[in-house]
Amino acid sequence: MDILNNTIKKISPSQKETDELNYLFREIKKYILSKYNINAELMGSVAKNTFLKNNNDLDIFIFFDKSTSLDDLEKEALQIGKDAFEHFDGSWQIDYASHPYTKGKIRNYKVEIVPCYKIKSIKEMISAVDRTPFHTKYIIKNLEPARRKDVLLLKQFLKTINCYGSDLKTKGFAGYLCELLIIKYKTFEGVLNEFSDLKRNTIISLSNSLNNTKKIIEKFDAPFIFLDPVDKNRNVAASLSIDVLLRTKYYSQQYLQNPGEIYFNPTKFEKKTASKKSLKSLLENRHFYVLCFEKPDLIEDILYPQLERFKNSLEKYVLSKEFHLNDCFFDCCPESNLCIIGFDFLTDDLSCFCHRRGPDIFAQKEKTEGFLNKHKNAYLSNGNYMCFEKRKITNACDLINSVKKKEAQKQIAIPKEIEKTLNKSFCVLDIKRIEEYVKSNKISSNVICRNIAGGKTI
User: Fold this and answer.
1) What are 268's strand-pairing partners?
2) pTM of the entire predicted model
3) Best exposed site among 53, 85, 157, 247 by fewest CB in 10 Å?
4) Which fold has domain 13-129?
5) Phi, psi of 438 (to 5 degrees)
6) pLDDT digit string, tens, across residues 115-173
């Protein structure tokens, strides 16, 4: 218990921090009300008093009448947000959720000003963000004040093991999900006990009974389901990736077996789990290449899904050319504004010729004749017509370089924004050039080490 008590002291915001945040919110609320006659309310972890020290975003929702068109809501909300940030000498930018909103900094605090519709029940919901005020009210009503510390412990634990955040980069736990888990299992260790013994197709509900679990599993098609008490048609855990679940299960088991403060300290934890091998030793004797290109000007929640789709399509392209991969990954390098896709090939080279299987002995005459007319070097083997032909690409590096050619790009699904920067800044690095890029700080060695097999230690 000393570990948890000591951690609570370190991660709980001070009264001064809490007071300053609430004071800033009241000022912004007053300004929006006086200038636009629109009500603003505080949402998120600050409103629920479940925010971590120095992790104090102000989520401010402004409420529009249901009669307001979506176009007018977006236009007016962006103007209100822009005016508010400028009035308080803040910096801002436009971001996107269900619709555009403004976010930025005021007095070193992160602030988001998000529009939503003023509705009386979830049944009247017009956009997904309209659900948020109901989430906030539910937690304020149902989370016991004494359990707030358990929410903070759970958030910090998940943050340390890189599983906190429902953004499309992390694919982890949302703050709301953490709060619901504490309401369900009462304590931080109670939640860890559940995850340490996580079963396939787990469904969690805050109601006492679950009916038609098979239908629920089919409906949400997710490895872990937590029914939203505010909206039964929503899985609060929909953002969780299978790897995040596995990581959470593993470290829950590790913590319960041997509790330690390191599980609440991201810096120390990262050092402990970082590969002890150097980049050079990790890449030694590998057939490893990196495709890199300039990062498109997209927010992370749009960029990362696009990079994942591009990476998956590249994997299919590689396999279609009969090369095999031990691993493939994507990441971003903030130091140089580069996106990278890493390829760990099983082998560098294939033979110049490959053998193709044709029709079998019972195939229609037309198919057989078509195959024989196309392939003049046909032969018979094990009841099939066969042929051998020369491969166009026999080297792994040449294969990745071929991605810049129009012929290859017709076979690969490349998102438009990625295609623009890819064709403009396309570059393939072998091991020697990777080391050069690391020395010149264009790519961080940590980015390669944390992704490549052997560097992903647990």
Assistant:
1) none
2) 0.91
3) 53
4) Beta Polymerase; domain 2 (3.30.460)
5) -65, -45
6) 999 999 999 999 999 999 999 999 999 999 999 999 999 999 999 999 999 999 999 99
